[in-house]
Design brief:
Blueprint lengths: L7 E6 L2 E7 L4 H5 L7 E5 L2 E2 L5 H10 L6 E4 L30 E7 L6 E7 L5 H7 L7 H6 L11 E6 L9 H7 L8 E3 L10 E8 L5
Length: 214
């Protein structure tokens, strides 16, 4: 119910009378029930559909006391829903690093034998060539003793064969593949100057000294 003066300006449209303007701080403006674009449906139970502008205005003018307006609020399109925030990509788990110090026990056997003749330890700071020479192990044949490259991976004379525990050692290098070839049988042959223990590796490795190349 609104007291007069209503403070509403109506406009005639094909859909009927609509609220075209509101007087600032007028009765309609202060009611919070009337909005621009509302369609007037009835006045004091007088149906406005199909009625002329003048006929409806006469009802409002002739009304005594508060005026009962029924308004159809203009449909307001809902704001589009915000796109869901994509879930952050999972952070890759850090590569697993074996726990504990690197310590590989080397068991040396003569060519063609499986009986260890000596043992030594190989930690992360020592290559196999150094461990063998420091321990007095036979690494080079006569030619290798004279012509070896000093551990640079160039001569291919410090050949050993890993019989067990190859997974505890570093991957074969290009120098090893170049000198020794590759394949299931050839992969057990290594250049001692290129071999070091894998990080965190612990276990036993059997190494054949001066093996017969196949």
């Amino acid at each position: 119910m609104l007291e007069k003066p209503l403070g509403i300006s109506f406009a005639e449209t094909p859909a009927g009378l609509v609220v075209d303007d509101l007087v600032a701080d007028g009765n309609a403006d202060l009611s919070d029930d009337v909005y621009l674009g509302d369609t007037l449906m009835s006045v004091n139970d007088f149906a406005c559909e199909g009625k002329t502008f003048d006929a409806i205005m006469d009802v409002i003018i002739d009304a005594q006391g508060p005026v009962k307006l029924v308004l159809a609020h203009e449909a307001v399109a809902p704001e589009p829903a915000a796109a869901p925030t994509p879930a952050p990509a999972p952070t890759p788990a850090p590569a697993a690093v074996p726990n504990g110090p690197t310590n590989v026990t080397l068991a040396f056997v003569e060519a063609g034998s499986t009986i260890p003749v000596a043992e030594a330890s190989l930690d992360g700071n020592v290559v196999l060539r150094t461990a063998m020479l420091d321990g007095g192990r036979e690494l080079y044949d006569t030619w290798g003793k004279l012509m070896n490259c000093g551990g640079a991976g160039q001569c291919g004379t410090c050949v050993v064969r890993v019989l067990e525990g190859g997974d505890l050692l570093s991957e074969r290098t290009d120098a090893e593949v170049g000198h020794l070839g590759s394949g299931k049988e050839r992969n057990s042959y290594r250049l001692a100057c290129q071999v070091e223990p894998s990080k965190g590796a612990q276990g036993r490795c059997v190494v054949e000294m001066k093996p017969t190349k196949k």
